[in-house]
């Protein structure tokens, strides 16, 4: 080694490479990350680097690019390559320091040359890595919306790295196409039922965060760090794509059940919802005259038309093929005119079907708005499909909306259930159960205040809301039996209930309050298994008036407190409310859901609520606003400083074990304080 140049003798180069070999052996790289042949090729490459690059640093970076390409093709691990550069640099600086009179200038030059070489090698490795194929093989699932968006975004990142960093797709989760598409019906269908929407959203947030770091490293020409971040980014994207692929595949192979699950879940979401049955007209006649294959081709053609409509309307449309030559179409966050127009376009295109199908095609359809139904189980949905099919078979080409049509459907459902159910046979512990729904504070804390207990009938693997039969139960004189069963379920599940709340709201009928056996059971439960739970009995204003003395006695003797249910509509006696509030019998005013539904459109309703809140607070009462279903309603109520809220936006009714799991899940989330709780 001379003073003027960084010239290494062959023996010095051999010594450096032998040191690198020992380094590989000491750190366990041999036999794991490198075999003997690959290590030798790596050492040969560094010999060339030490001879050529150090002695002629003024040459272009072509030798380093070629070295990087060779190492990449031989699958030399990047981390091992960077470690080799660092090791040889350290040993070379030691060699220079002991063999020159002015080591400082040479050491600085060595450091500069090696960092330049590392940067050039890392950049070339990155460019070669970017050329690797997509992390998802070619398949039909690549065209699914969320997967396609991910792959298109990743290709934009690739192009920016290769050609123009200014075109790098920097995004925030709020303004990304992926986040927007997560709100599409099909996207929610694949993840809602499996409770994976939050996981998809969080994975996407981490990917965008990694991309922002990658952009910063590239902008600073820190290619060594950029390469590592790119590999991690591709891994994160690959994991997200694999999860999406699994969800889409499962959804496609089980689409009908997934469709029904989404319809049920969507009832708890804001926005208008419509369900339509679309039938191929004269299908039986087509099968009879032209054969089943011709009928199958006709159905496939209708499916193709619907799929084309879906491609252009993914933000509100979802459909699936039914079980009897029909199609089920759902519109979410839309209006009847849009769904009616879609069906009209299908009919127009069927009239221009071409020569492949040698007979006329047409469809019949009927749809209904589901927005106000709130809760349907799987059995209910099958009956709704039957109802819509009956309407469609009458050539009623119509998308119905409004309360009147909803009442017609409910009456039809009730009649169908009446024909198939024996109420007395259902009123058993095995035939009934309880659901619970949370009451949440309407402030920044979003505190879980209590749960309301709701009775349910079991129906196969599902449940039927008691409201579907409550009139029949009362008419048959069985309401006290039903209330007693609900109380028994509460007692049986008390150990689980007290793990998630210390307060329960229970609905009790007027007849039960007059029944000595029920009152004895209630008092025994309060003094025994429910003694550490605060029980709040919900009664309407009329019942409070009619049972005024009994209410006072139950409060004084047993500490029971009451809530005025459906306050603000119908029967009203402010004097009675004041008296019961002053004696402490009532503590809550539950404002009727009809007020909430009109809250954002009616200033009069807002004034009524504000006056009610002021009166309640002066009497020491807590207000509970029911049927909160939209963020607009929540924001208005929070601004009005109402106390508690209840509704599908804040938590849907579900079984006690399910809610235990939901509470545990919410406690693990870091963002639960950022907005209303929405758990489907």
How would you describe this structure to a colleague?
The chain is of the alpha/beta class. It has four domains: 10-130, Globin-like; 140-253; 255-418, 2-Layer Sandwich (Alpha-Beta Plaits), CATH 3.30.70; 423-659, EAL domain (TIM Barrel), CATH 3.20.20.450. The strands form two sheets. An eight-stranded mixed beta barrel has the order 6-7-9-10-11-12-13-14, surrounded by four helices. The chain has a five-stranded mixed β-sheet with strand order 2-3-1-4-5, with helices on both faces. Strand 6 and strand 7 (448-459) form a beta hairpin. Helix 10 (223-253) packs across helix 11 and helix 15 (378-393) packs across helix 16 (403-420).
Write the layout of secondary structure elements.
Layout: H1 10-26, H2 36-53, H3 62-73, H4 78-99, H5 103-130, H6 145-162, H7 177-182, H8 185-192, H9 197-219, H10 223-253, H11 255-266, E1 273-280, H12 283-290, H13 292-312, E2 317-321, E3 326-332, H14 336-350, E4 363-369, H15 378-393, E5 398-400, H16 403-420, H17 423-426, E6 432-441, E7 448-459, E8 462-465, H18 470-475, H19 479-492, H20 494-497, E9 503-507, H21 510-513, H22 516-527, E10 534-540, H23 541-546, H24 548-558, E11 561-567, H25 574-583, E12 586-591, H26 593-597, H27 603-618, E13 622-625, H28 631-639, E14 644-645, H29 656-668
Parallel strand pairs: 4-5, 7-9, 9-10, 10-11, 11-12, 12-13, 13-14
Antiparallel strand pairs: 1-3, 1-4, 2-3, 6-7, 6-14, 7-8
